Fold each of these.
Amino acid sequence: MERIILHIDMDAFFASVEQRDHEEYRGKPVIVGGLGPRGVVSTASYEARKFGVHSAQAMAIARRRCPGAVFLHPDHARYSAVSRQIFSILSRFSPVIEKLSIDEGFLDLTGMERLMDSPRAYGEAIKRAVREETGLTASVGVAPNKFLAKLASDMEKPDGLVVIRPEDAERVLAPLPVSRIFGVGKKTEERLASLGLKTIGQLAVADRQKLARALGDRMAAQLLSLAHGLDDRSVEPTRAVQSIGREETFNEDIRSREEAERVLLSLSEEVGWRLRREGLAARTVTLKLRFASFDTYTRQQTFPEPVSYDEDIFAAAQSLFRAFPLPPGQGIRLLGVTAGNLSAGGEISLFDDHEKKDRLYDAIDKLKGKFGENVLTRAALTKPKEEQG
Ligand code: TTP
Ligand code: MG
């Protein structure tokens, strides 16, 4: 059966929310991201993009390219709330929704043709509902599969609506560079170029044997079908995340409590960051400890209110750790921090008590000072060993 898949992606999401909420920023270049010396751009409004500013760029470069912009620190809680509102609007149009990120998702509209005149009418209705209820613009692509729908939503950004009909797919794809196919990274792109294949159209008529020799059978088959506009992946309704956790196994067992706390800090920071990114808050924090003997323990703390700040997560992990008697002569082999009992979160800090908060920050800064500022980097460099949820 012919499917109807819709992909929606908000335009300059964080920056658009800021412009919506602050009239004085409208029509101006707005750059959202880390504002410190090592900050990175989260996103830039379309006005700022004209100056060559874009996501993941060093903020220092963005400042140079667009010194007159409004620079803002991201307010994840607010963006998450808007994101929830958007997905709840989408859920009125189809029960089959796959959330890809805070501002982007797929809807399967197959079988709902009877309710609307055409796929385009669906796209228009969804864009209108989002605009009227959130004051924000989205770009939408409608196509017979995920690959084409995502491509389509990107073709007329911002505020775009592009429908790719099955019979038009190959014609639309033909002039595009092969890098527009997901899974084609720099390396594959280079290999394809060495075979003289630069566009998707060229790839579509390439010799299958030759392609398989260069890329392997599976990759060749996959690329060929995508180049013909075929993709049978289904929209997988996103299931609710049960918990968000990070753990680290050490090359050498940890023997000092202070070093263990430094690791707990970096794990807590990463868990907190991911919670806020998902717009979630946690009622419980679980500490996991594994010793050289492989004996493994977990200890859990429950909060009166859901939390999503690093400091709350770390404070819990730290107090659980401090209360745990370390077996004599045994190094720590693994440490883990998991946030559980999740709910959609506003950001609440347990530290309304400022004195307590100051003391905690003293401790955090000491740990950072002692072991260098790259607490976060170290955790980020170590790939997740295990992820619950
Ligand atoms: P995107 O949808 O990739 O970007 P965007 O919505 O800002 O712009 P557009 O879709 O119109 O091209 O990402 C959504 C949000 O995610 C973005 O507003 C900010 C955040 N984000 C980051 O924090 N870092 C990043 O590197 C990227 C790509 C996005
Ligand atoms: Mg977007």
Amino acid sequence: MLVLNDSSLLRPGSYIDGQWQTNNQHLAVRNPANGELLHTIANSNGIETEQAVVAARKAFTSWKKTTANERASIMRRWFNLIMEHQQDLAKILTAEQGKPLAEASGEIGYGAAFIEWFAEEAKRVYGDTIPAPSGDKRIVVIKQPVGVVAAITPWNFPNAMIARKAAAALAAGCTFIVRPATQTPLSALALAELAQRAGVPAGVFNVVVGDNARAMGQILTSHPDVDKFTFTGSTGVGKSLIAQCATTVKKVSMELGGNAPFIVFDDADVDAAVAGAIASKYRNAGQTCVCTNRIFVQQDIKDEFTEKFVSAVKQLQVGDGFDENVVIGPMISTQAVRDVQNLVQESISQGAVVALGGDSHSAGDCFYQPTIMTNVSNDMAIAANEIFGPVSPIIAFDNEDEVIGLANDTEYGLAAYFYARDIGRIWRVAEGLEYGMVGINEGIISNAAAPFGGMKQSGNGREGSKYGLDDYLEIKYLCMGGLDK
Ligand code: SIN
């Protein structure tokens, strides 16, 4: 049973126009670690989604007129409340998503940091003046909120992926509707509860929870009163959603899949590379878009790296996220375990060798063993696909040009990592990698101050940082003429 200091953080259903929705259609939320029923909430559908759009449109007329300072102080209160309730929010997150409690607490801080960051950035939405081509004219550029923003967010970061989008939207003066993943609605509703307590006006932040993803997604991507759509999730689903947005030519920003290379050159600090690979690969049981997907190691240090990596990964404790020493929790579902197992099996049949793990874990139906595979090549299933699980394929390489080519040989371009010391090599490789984010001698790169986003089929737009507001703002050009006497 989920015991919280503040039990009113567990809400009954969707939050629309400042009201909590209840109905007789129930949605059960379960703990992936043990299948335990955590909470039952009202199951919303298309009708509630439409209501949320109407509420957000109505609220936009007044929210867009608030000053940046007014929005910033409400958002600051929201940030403070989240941090005051960090432990309860982390417990909710671990219970519905599975990640270890310390990692869940980290996610709450990570999500809150976006709200704090954008509360400050709201005050720096500057315009421009541009020298005009003729003397009787002046050119002025102003920035205005895009309007109503709809978001669909994933189960792997039930708090931070909402906070990262909503914070930028609200700071810019937009209103916001989110449909969180069906598996993890409780964290989203707790965020709404704290938004209400912070004084976010009715209709400005709305959460619609329901299991009819298709119908709800259709409304959020095609409703004429939604001005912008943003999604974090797989590239396949992202492509369909972009197509749906085309009918009303919505602005879109997409954080999609990844196939992150992690390259270890022969001048690297191997111990640091091992630590970085573990942090990047096994975070959230390997279920993040920026998780290392392929580890490339230069031939002459391959044995040393593999030996050290296997011995360090063996120490990682797997189990229920509420157990103190656990660092790898369950995967989100038994289907997710099967998907990973299929990739591992297919790669074994293609010639890969299991150096560690390689099967489901005895901790329960949703657990998979931390796994390392050697003798892998870039075209095997385990390297060509986004794994989204705790499996590390190791691929040997000979030289810089070869590994840059291999690393870029994918439709994805989200995150990449490499370990090296030679400064010339660092610049060459950093510039050669076709990825939106590159960790250099660093396995964890996400933070509110940095622009998160991808190239190629990993999406478009950036979240966080000084660039993160741009996706929620329209640039308007004012041409003032007739200024001659
Ligand atoms: C993601 O997996 O989509 C987000 C990961 C992060 O923000 O670090």
